[in-house]
User: Fold this.
Amino acid sequence: MRQADASLASRRATPIFDFIEAGNYKAAIAFATKAIKKGGQLQMVRAAKAMALQKMGKPADAVRELDGLAKEVPDQLDVLQIMSLVYHDLDMMPRVGALYAAAFDKHPNDEEFANHYFMSLVRDQQPAAMQRVALTMHKRFQQPKYYFWSVMSAVLQGQQQQQQQQQQQQQPQQPQQVSSGEAQPPNIFSQLAARMFEKAIADGMVQDYEVLTLYLGLLQDTRQFDAALAVLDGPLGALCKVASEKRGWIMDLAKAKGDWARVQATCTEQLAENSDDWHAWQEAIDAIVRRQLGDDAFLPLVDQAIATLDAQERRRGPYLARVYYYATTYATRPNDSALTAALSEFVDRFGGVAACFDDLRRCLAAIPAAIQDPIWAAHRITDPVATVTLDQLRRHINAAKAVFFRSDTVLGAAWQQQQLALYRATQALSADVTPTEWQYGDELLLLVVYDLLREWSVSGCQQQERLVRALGVLQLGMAASKANFRMAVLASLLYMHLGQFELAYALFRKLDIKNLQYEMLGFIYAWGLEAMRPGHPLVPKCMQLLNSCVESGVEQEVPAMLSRAFHFGTFSKIPEFLKFGTRLRHSIWHKVRALQTERAAWLVAQPAVRKRHDLDRHVVELQRRFCDAAWRSAWHNEDADVIDLLSARFEMHPVTLTHLTAGPGLADWGIQQTVRLAHLWALAYGGAVPDLQTTPTGWTPPIPAPPPAVAPSSSKTPATRSAAEPAATTQDEANTAESSSSSSPPPASSSSSTIDALYLAVLEKATVDPSAAVEAVGALQTAVHAAWTALPTAVPARDAYQQLLCLTEALSMLSLAAARRAWGKSVAAAVAAAAQQTAAFLTAWEQARPVTVATVVGATAPAGQDDAVLPTLGPLIRDVVDALREGRAACLRDHRAVLSHTRKA
Assistant:
């Protein structure tokens, strides 16, 4: 009867699943309801109905259906699996465990139900319950693997307890990691797991290498190094089928114990088998130095390794070990010529290998420049016009890297031009390179870019033209090397800094990055969201970036990987999976996504900021949850060479991105933008603009106090300019402003403060006096035009663009407010006239200052242009001009969707 019911349910549920697969959830629900009324309470059909309800966006109805079904204690695996999928999508994993627990209690001798119950606990990460169930399964079904499932669960409990104790004792600087290699004091769970292993060894149950690694990891974590070495030396050591893995265990354990003699002996044995094992060379040198054995112990080891190499073999290990050894011991014998000979031999042999500098980088810091310079100078190319081979080019690149990374000194324009000339002269060598490979000379361009960034950083981040030149060099390289990921990421960072979000986003889409790389690099692009005007076409695309994060799948993927590791008995992978999940949950992208989502949700839910208290409370809460300490404790992408390089060489920590994003700290800047957007939304939807001149508790207002009046750029002052004449647009006025700015250029911070004050004045007056608001817009427009006329000598390009955004948003919001509040046609006409004048000014400005990439990069750039170049802001300016020309209709269209959503909310 039970089989007949299951068959009937399966037949009736098949059309429902077909509807769900086709996306027709409404039909699936209707069909399921009809089938239930027709044929009784079929569990399969009811589970399918719950799945359709969940996918249709009715989670409450789906949970109600599932809870009612769970009370009947279903015991069909297919029904339980469907219910588990729905609960999993609803993030209700504890209920999945309750389902299988009830089924296991109903059928206590069914091993399949027991396995599903245990795996549901693994996915929910409940190690205490896992240990209890695994022991029950071992006693009932007499399978050794269930015993070791219990041991692994006890180990996880011990690690969980240690993390909780560490969090209580001190605030960690980095997220807690779950690693089998960290030395931890033993606790009650570790001791229990050790005793369980002793029993398993006595009963002869340890017959697998993965089980042995679990035991060795446990002994290593509890600092029982002698016991672990005894296990490897005993009969269980034969389970290590690969000799190199066994030696690796012995080296790590002996090193942790301090038995340097055994470390040296094991390394010698490993090097006799593989003379290119760099880990063994490092451990051997460390052991020799610590034992103070000197050259008599090291040189025979190297000579023997070199003697075993064939004449055609190009293994770098022995030769690099010689350099590393002499560099390590150089402080004790500074006059020894052995280091010079070893470094010279290595560079002569392997200077034409692309990895030569990367191999030497770990020890070049200990080698004086007097030794390095003559060796590298012999491999540099001084005449780029001559015919250059690929081997010579690679030697030159390695030499250039050594010179650049040896210090923080700017190498200068002459050195940069030499590298660019060499790149052009050697492009023919890359004729056989496939589109997915780098050009052979790409490293030269990257070195030029790094030097320009270093020059910009040394100048206090004021010489924006250096960033423009760097962008030109990157564009030159990306034109030939379309797959150069490092160049694309660097160019995107620079575009974001200069405010060219469209170009940064276009580069991002061309990278065709995978899901995991969103986690690594997505936070770079998410921070440009606030700087875009409302209704910008890139805003929804950037919001997609917030949702395209591997973090959103961590809670699904990591538990699935853990269950597979238990199923196949690969216990050594379980700590790695846990560490991976921990890193993603504490990543920068996760925090950026949380902050942006929090800000967007708050602004949508409360578009009219009517009470100052609400804004203050929200800002304080943002500061508490997203303080700079929280950012410093987040994981960043240590695998991206470009971000790591910026962090190490230009003091741009990848967590704060101090220079290449928007301020002294991501959290502070995000809070400022939140307040700024709150002002805009309040103006657009009729709310009162909060008075930010009163300082909330524990918070410094981001908008400064109003400075002295702005110096006029014509005979009329900004305050008395009429609505029909809101800004200077004639060529004479522009020339006057330019000459005055060149004679006494104001500081960038002063200009920014003035713009912010005028912008705030527009917002304040727009709520009470339309005429005064129009006059304030005129003053703001005059100041912005003056700032753009002074580019780039007085105002950084990024500041000017932010100021232009202030003017654009003020005009847009004032136009919308005029329409909503029925201020009359005169106000709307004045705003439209101001928009047209700004559009004309920007168009004329772009035509008067054309700067191409070739001019920026080329070696034949006119003299004196280095300090006056500015990027063609083409797409950026056209977007602003189009927005201004559209006027009131554009404002209404941009905000109609948001307004409709707010009314529904």
Q: What stands out?
A: The CA atoms of residues 818 and 824 lie 7 Å apart.
